[in-house]
Design brief:
Largest sheet of chain B: 5 strands, parallel
Number of strands of chain A: 9
CATH class of chain B: Alpha Beta
Strand order of the largest sheet of chain B: 3-2-4-5-6
Strand content of chain B: 25-35%
Structural class of chain A: alpha/beta
CATH superfamily of the largest domain in chain A: Aspartate/ornithine carbamoyltransferase
Helix content of chain B: 25-40%
Oligomer: heterodimer
Shape of chain B: globular
Strand content of chain A: 5-15%
Largest interface: A-B, 21 and 19 residues
Number of helices of chain B: 4
Strand order of the largest sheet of chain A: 7-6-5-8-9
Distance between the termini of chain A: 10 Å
Number of domains of chain A: 2
Chain lengths: 305, 182
Amino acid sequence: MSLSIENLLGLEDVPQADINQIFDAAFSFREVLERPVKKVPTLKGTTVVNLFFEPSTRTKNSFALAEKRLSADTVNFSAASSSLQKGESLKDTIQNLCAMKIDLVVMRHPTPGSVKMLADFVNAVIINAGDGTHEHPTQALLDIMSLKEKFGQVQDLNVAIIGDIKHSRVALSNIYGLKTMGANVMLCAPPPFMPVSVEDLDVKVTYNVDEALEFADAVNVLRIQKERQASGLIPSLREYRNRFGITLERVASLQKPITILHPGPMNRQVEIDSAIADGENAIILDQVLNGVAVRMAVLFLLSGS
Amino acid sequence: MNFITKKTVTDSKMLGRMITRLSHEIIEKCKGIDNLAIVGIRTRGEYIAKRLAEEIENIEKTEVPVGILDVVMYRDDFRSKNKLPKLKVTDIPFDVDNKKLILVDDVIYTGRTVRAALDALTDLGRPASIKLAVLIDRGHREMPIMPNFVGKEFKTAPEEEIRVKVKEIDDKDEILLVEAKK
């Protein structure tokens, strides 16, 4: 059992067999998370450096927990308190860290493609924890794993992604991953939030949220980044809610149950109503638990390569 | 890799008798079945554990809890092998605290799997005791580990392998001595 990929930079080129292996391992690690002693010695002696050049709560803590549960040694690096402030380049910073014999690097960086650049000159396994508006593969893996857990399989499942798709790395990784796993994907967003080259993604597109809800077995509701409103892309949050919000009325008018995912952090009463987010069809907290398991699986499988 | 079968070590009838004898030995050595629980190591140990539990239930007319342990996460050699072993789920549906555990595997060889299993079990709680039952002891131990209950001691050469087959997943019950084809 080993993956065909050596680094996890994005889901664009990850084959289905690899994704299935990651899910199988993640379901095994789920059991560890249910134990009284939530720790296994699997990665004892492996050193992981967490490089976060951007604020993160969920992803950073999820990776940190995954590493601790596997008994890896970890070094945490945050840009604000580093030599980057003294003018050291990213490349030099990372080469210096790697000279200290690091096995894996988990990196989040605001520049799309930064992890790819890193992978080209560093002799360690690289895991992308979000590179700008490009990809966030572990988030998509945990989303798809949660769908697989809920529905049994992802093949032929209808999944709608609703919200700020253009600026979302979560959306892009989900699109690649869902398509690889055989799901039907529909994107729904106001025109300023739809990617320019959306037709290249080979997915269904709608600008009508009711049409997306009608189509979907599950919807992944993306966060409206409030700073986007200041830039004038949407007139107001209230208008966004009226036109695109996953409201109680909209969901209640459907003749079927619909599964709700949200990568967090949520803006309640903007892109999603509290009654829906806390409702029986929301699997948002399952996503968080699966996030730790899926990251354990990725760390475990890539460290063996 | 292709293997050639050199010898049938145990046929299906003998394997059944082996299970029956081991069950009686376990009951006797544990002085009954109070707090007894059986844990099989994936993959073949799982099926042997279930058969032992069934047999003990037949003899004592009381149910014995059975769990399945996956020790891949606890192996010390997973990085040195070319291929990672497939990770499966540990499923122990009872509290191991204060239980008399019988750890079951098909074959004991270097003792490293059992070492990993002991670590895994002690992470789950504090059993009253752990005893080890195996169908075949093929020698060549690399760790100071001895089984308490042995179906058969069978001396082997390091290049040989013991294959335990169980009808649940291999169509028939038998134990074979095989060797890799050169």
